[in-house]
């Protein structure tokens, strides 16, 4: 929608070919229906550092369309925005529909929206010539922008059509895998913790295949589910697990990151002194969420009925270690249709980062998730979509390569 509206606004006769009844269906479910449109970063480097996959490729796109430009775009069109925790930008209304309607109006004002699905890319003499739809209709065009998304949430229309069209043009497709996706966990106690949200914790991801190397660490919020773990920290962590193998990755949770082991031990001692005659299982309520207490008690190996004044120093040391390093084993990603985005796509080596144009076929451009780039959760992926869509469209309005 950003690409089509931009091209049309600049005088190019533009058709947006949309397989759904109305564009923007996937936008409607982003940010839990609130639409996290961008992240309030004030530098290109900040944006790039939030894109673990081929971030440098986006330097040109980000430089030309920053989050401040995204804000100006929507605010100037009557959609006020606000900044929340983690610099996440949302519509003041908390309604994704306001963002979708704004973009929809932008396209309708400047381009033609046509219902259909492209199944074949037309090329001739190294130049794009248009597409053929599922219904057999030929749409001739001097420029084509493939902005079809990846394969996550296929019910919204993201079924990998862009990869098929790119392959027809000779492009290399990096095999798509789920990213920003919940994780399935081996340990059964996750089921007992279903629905428990932990705030102000630190999550680390350990790659056991590389000598237990830490590949991700971040402070924030996570969630236990019936299958394992989810929430903002986990979704971002999943972007670093490039080659998923059962048991390869471990998630380490520091439940008390603000306290050193020594400080945490002193805190536990203080709690115990205030509950001298209580059983161990009844003395942790001030330290942990109620739902987590029986799990921690069981994992600690300390008898639940042991009086806290009988807990030994060694047992306390083990308890501190457990609270600072609650570890679970990843068995796999959740299915791709539960992923927020797709990692993989058209190889960035075959796309001009200054224009988003194919290096193989003149007049062919790519934008958004169909490209092999993906970022953390927090509005970064939509900023990629807006910036690359804008850049591709701006280059489509340049002088045509050929007559016809």
List the helices and strands and how they pair.
Elements: H1 2-9, E1 15-18, E2 38-39, H2 44-49, H3 59-64, H4 67-75, E3 81-84, E4 88-91, H5 96-110, E5 112-115, E6 118-124, E7 127-133, E8 138-140, E9 144-146, H6 161-168, E10 173-179, E11 183-185, H7 189-192, E12 197-207, E13 213-224, E14 228-230, H8 232-238, E15 249-254, H9 261-273, H10 293-300, H11 313-324, E16 326-333, E17 341-346, E18 364-366, H12 380-396
**Structural class by SSE content:** alpha+beta
Give the domain tally: 2
Per the principal axes of the C-alpha atoms, what is the gross shape?
elongated
Largest β-sheet summary? 6 strands, antiparallel, barrel
Under CATH, the homologous superfamily of the largest domain reads FAD/NAD(P)-binding domain
CATH class term of the largest domain: Alpha Beta
Question: What spatial order of strands do you see in the largest sheet?
Answer: 11-14-13-12-15-16
Number of helices: 12
**Which blocks of ≥5 consecutive residues have pLDDT under 50?**
400-404
Describe this structure in words.
By secondary structure, the chain is an alpha+beta fold. It contains 12 helices and 18 strands. The protein has helices at residues 2-9, 44-49, 59-64, 67-75, 96-110, 161-168, 189-192, 232-238, 261-273, 293-300, 313-324, 380-396; strands at 15-18, 38-39, 81-84, 88-91, 112-115, 118-124, 127-133, 138-140, 144-146, 173-179, 183-185, 197-207, 213-224, 228-230, 249-254, 326-333, 341-346, 364-366. A 6-stranded antiparallel barrel has the order 11-14-13-12-15-16. A 3-stranded antiparallel β-sheet has the order 2-4-3. Strands 6-7-8 form a 3-stranded antiparallel β-sheet. The longest helix is centred in the last third of the chain and has 17 residues, at 380-396. The relative contact order is 0.19. Mean pLDDT is 93; it is low at 400-404.
């Amino acid at each position: 929608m950003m690409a089509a509206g931009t091209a049309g606004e600049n005088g190019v006769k533009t058709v947006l070919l949309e397989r759904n009844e109305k564009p923007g269906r996937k936008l409607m479910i982003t940010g839990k229906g609130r639409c996290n449109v961008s992240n309030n970063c004030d530098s290109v480097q900040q944006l790039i550092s939030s894109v673990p996959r081929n971030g440098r490729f986006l330097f040109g796109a980000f430089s030309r369309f920053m989050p401040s430009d995204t804000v100006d775009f929507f605010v100037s069109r009557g959609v006020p925005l606000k900044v929340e925790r983690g610099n996440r930008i949302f519509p003041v209304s908390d309604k994704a529909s306001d963002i979708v309607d704004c973009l929809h109006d932008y396209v309708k004002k400047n381009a033609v929206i046509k219902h259909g699905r492209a199944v074949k890319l037309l090329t001739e003499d190294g130049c794009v010539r248009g597409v053929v739809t599922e219904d057999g209709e030929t749409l001739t065009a001097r420029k084509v922008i493939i902005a079809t998304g990846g394969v996550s949430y296929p019910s919204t229309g993201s079924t990998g059509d862009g990869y098929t069209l790119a392959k027809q043009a000779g492009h290399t497709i990096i095999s798509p895998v789920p990213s920003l996706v919940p994780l399935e966990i081996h340990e059964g106690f996750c089921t007992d913790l279903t629905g428990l949200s932990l705030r102000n914790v630190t999550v680390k991801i350990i790659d056991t295949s590389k000598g237990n190397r830490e590949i991700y660490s971040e402070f924030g919020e996570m969630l236990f589910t019936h299958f394992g773990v989810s929430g903002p920290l986990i979704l971002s962590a999943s972007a670093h697990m490039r080659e998923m193998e059962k048991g390869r990755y471990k998630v380490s949770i520091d439940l008390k990151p603000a306290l050193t082991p020594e400080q945490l031990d002193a805190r536990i001692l203080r709690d115990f002194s205030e509950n001298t005659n209580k059983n161990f299982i009844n003395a942790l309520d001030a330290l942990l969420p109620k739902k987590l207490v029986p799990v921690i008690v069981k994992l600690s190996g300390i008898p639940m009925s042991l009086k806290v004044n009988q807990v030994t120093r060694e047992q306390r040391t083990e308890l501190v270690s457990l609270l600072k390093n609650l570890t679970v084993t990843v068995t796999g990603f959740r299915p791709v249709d539960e992923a927020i985005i797709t990692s993989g796509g058209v190889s960035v080596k075959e796309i001009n980062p200054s224009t988003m144009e194919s290096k193989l076929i003149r007049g062919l451009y790519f934008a958004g998730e169909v490209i092999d780039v993906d970022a953390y959760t927090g509005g970064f992926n939509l900023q990629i979509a807006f910036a690359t869509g804008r850049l591709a469209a701006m280059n489509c309005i340049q002088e045509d390569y050929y007559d016809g």
